[in-house]
Specification:
This protein is α/β, with parallel strands linked by helices. The protein contains eight helices and six strands, in the order αβαβαβαβαβαβαα. A six-stranded parallel β-sheet has the order 1-2-3-4-5-6. It is globular. It starts with 15 loop residues before the first helix and ends with a helix.
Length: 228
């Protein structure tokens, strides 16, 4: 949200109607924390509890006077942890999950890199509290698809689906060559080689694309939709 609004001047409330419109169509709207830039970390379990409380009050609970999205209530939190420290993300997951007891389920998702186990959220994922895990099979040559060779990706996929106690695992891909440094898969290769090799997994959830901006430009999403 930070690229679209300033939460400290009520700038995010303008997103309220958009969020609720998506949710009315059955689309879950989730706040992603972390990212590939900046330095961020949790120093203790207590700080993780405080962050969970802040996220609940400002984005999830819907009842707080400090709610940053007006009357819109998000569906959960995405852990896109790509730096800083790997400590206490499991605590944050437990505290956030605990808020599900207040009525509305808090979905937990994560976007780890494909090398296993993930260096940042590997421990948090072991809690078994995550609903959806969209593994980034790009910018990581040892476990991504390379033209004509699916073995590295397939081996990594099997490890993720066997060892991570999540509801569904998603194949994370760039939606265009420019969307990532490496890992783009041609539509014909994805639909004829990659998806047939992984779709039989009971944890297969679908394909995650980075990002909608690139997907709208390339048409990648609509090209693969019927095969996913």
């Amino acid at each position: 949200f930070t690229s679209h609004c300033d939460p400290y001047s009520n700038g995010c409330t303008s997103l309220s109607s958009d969020i609720k419109s998506c949710q009315a169509k059955g689309i879950k709207v989730i706040l992603s924390i972390g990212g590939g830039a900046g330095s961020y970390y949790l120093t203790s379990s207590e700080e993780a509890r405080q962050v969970a409380t802040y996220l609940w009050n400002n984005f999830l609970g819907g009842q707080s006077s400090s709610h940053l999205l007006g009357n819109a209530v998000l569906d959960g939190i995405d852990f896109d942890i790509e730096g800083g420290s790997n400590q206490h993300w499991d605590d944050l997951a437990r505290y956030l999950s605990g808020y599900s007891n207040k009525g509305k389920k808090v979905y937990l998702t994560a976007a780890p890199q494909c090398p296993f186990p993930d260096a940042w959220v590997g421990g948090a994922l072991k809690t078994g509290l995550f609903d959806y895990v969209w593994v980034q099979f790009y910018n990581n040559p040892p476990c991504q698809y390379s033209t004509g060779s699916i073995s590295n990706l397939e081996d990594a996929w099997k490890q993720w689906t066997l060892d991570i106690p999540a509801t569904k695992i998603f194949l994370g891909l760039p939606a265009a060559p420019a969307a990532a440094g490496s890992g783009f898969i041609l539509v014909v290769d994805l639909t004829s080689k990659v998806l047939p090799a992984i779709k039989n997994s009971h944890k297969y959830g679908g394909v995650m694309l980075w990002s909608k901006y690139y997907g709208d430009q390339s048409g990648y999403s609509s090209a693969i939709k019927s095969h996913v």
